[in-house]
């Protein structure tokens, strides 16, 4: 038995369903009830109930593009803060493509304090994220502006098949790297451009759970371009 | 002795009346989640960080996350000024907060990590441990930490021979008994039960039931606080 309307706002502990159903994402079963674990929008599917979280921390998954800071290093690997529950590891082979040798001077490749774009290639048996910077667009970030956003709202910033982000790129002329962990690197040719992207991202964050967002953002950007803001 | 209905407490409340309560979520931009609560003259701000890497690392547990709390009263929160150093009482409430919140959190999902909860009492007027737990639950939900249920906390007790709800500082100091209780309304389970003073078994039962009723009212305020953040955005949808 449903206890909410589809896409209604629910809070942790709200009873979403009474009876037999599969408990999907951000829900759990307690006796014959299914309850929510996070703030979000409830979604009743076929034989399953889940919650689209509006607030959630970052949980690393294999294949994610992330933006992080190098916070420490040891012989053979760097520790990277990617806002996950634990620090991520980046080993020398994953950074240079060749095995570790004593001749390598690690700070020359990456030093503490560097910001990097990396890919999560694996989760080891302790579930520590393993990163790699081998690949196009990955590696140390030389300049730009790093801003943060709730990781659960990143899909809205990307949009369906990247529609939102390509639109923002086109309208503002900025370069954006979106980390799945909620860190976004904005690189523009002027400060005004970058500020505009930040404003747009803040707006998407505020209105992430509403419909027709891409059109509204496009209108907003058009106003800015025509100098009407 | 006047009847229960006519009788008024020192601050003019009825025996089963809560103080005015206001909660706001997401007040600290630098924290992962936060909440501010005003309960009568109590003013408390709570920040939540995590799940994040545990430091010092030897405290991390391989199979579960750890909840760390800090309850602290600002030097200016009481009259007279109070030393900012953590007192025995602060340490007790720190522990009590952890015990009250732990059952609500899926800590086993975050091995080797920690969730930190910092509660800072800006102004105190009795019942700060309950208000801190109430606000901490809102802050945890705001941080996106998976919870089994929200935790609401409220006290009941005995003052001038009568059972009363939500004791203030005066009633706490000069009353016969004080019973703080934390409760998960959807699961119907008590996560904190303390008692200070003397109550007969019948009075104890009445106090517990009264405090649970209070928790349910506070729970509604918590819900409103969490929902308010998204209502603004709902309006945007209408445009």
Question: Descriptors for this entry?
Answer:
heterodimer, A: 229 residues, alpha+beta, OB fold (Dihydrolipoamide Acetyltransferase, E2P), Ribosomal Protein S8, Chain: A, domain 1, 3 domains, 4-stranded mixed β-sheet, 16 strands, B: 239 residues, Ribosomal Protein S5, domain 2, 29% strand, globular
Describe it.
The complex is a heterodimer of chains A (229) and B (239). Helices cover 23% and strands 32% of the residues of chain A. Chain A has 229 residues and is of the alpha+beta class. The termini of chain A are far apart. The mean pLDDT of chain A is 91. Chain B has a single domain, classed as GHMP Kinase, N-terminal domain (Ribosomal Protein S5, domain 2). The interface between A and B is large, with 34 and 37 residues.
Write the layout of secondary structure elements.
The complex is a heterodimer of chains A (229) and B (239).
Chain A: E1 9-10, E2 15-18, E3 22-23, E4 27-30, E5 33-36, E6 40-44, E7 48-53, E8 65-74, E9 77-81, E10 88-91, H1 92-96, H2 106-109, E11 115-123, E12 129-132, E13 139-140, E14 145-148, H3 154-158, H4 163-172, E15 175-178, E16 183-187, H5 191-206, H6 213-225
Parallel strand pairs in A: 3-7, 10-12
Antiparallel strand pairs in A: 1-6, 2-5, 4-5, 6-7, 8-9, 8-11, 9-10, 11-12, 11-13, 14-16, 15-16
Helix pairs in contact in A: 4-6, 5-6
Chain B: E1 21-25, E2 33-39, E3 42-53, E4 66-73, H1 88-101, E5 113-123, H2 128-142, E6 152-159, E7 162-165, H3 169-174, E8 177-184, E9 189-193, E10 196-197, H4 201-238
Parallel strand pairs in B: 4-5
Antiparallel strand pairs in B: 1-2, 2-3, 3-5, 6-7, 6-8, 8-9, 8-10
What's this entry about, in short?
By secondary structure, chain A is of the alpha+beta class.
Largest interface: A-B, 34 and 37 residues
Strand content of chain A: 25-35%
The average pLDDT score of chain B comes to 93
CATH superfamily of chain B: GHMP Kinase, N-terminal domain
Molecular shape of chain A: flat
- What is the helix tally of chain A? 6
Regarding quaternary structure, how should these chains be classified? heterodimer
Task: Count every beta strand of chain A, where a strand is a DSSP E run of 2 or more residues.
Answer: 16
Major sheet of chain B: 5 strands, mixed
CATH superfamily of the largest domain in chain A: K Homology domain, type 1
- Shape of chain B from CA axes? globular
Structural class of chain A: alpha+beta
The top level CATH class name of the largest domain in chain A: Alpha Beta
Distance between the termini of chain A: 48 Å
Give average pLDDT of chain A, whole number. Answer: 91
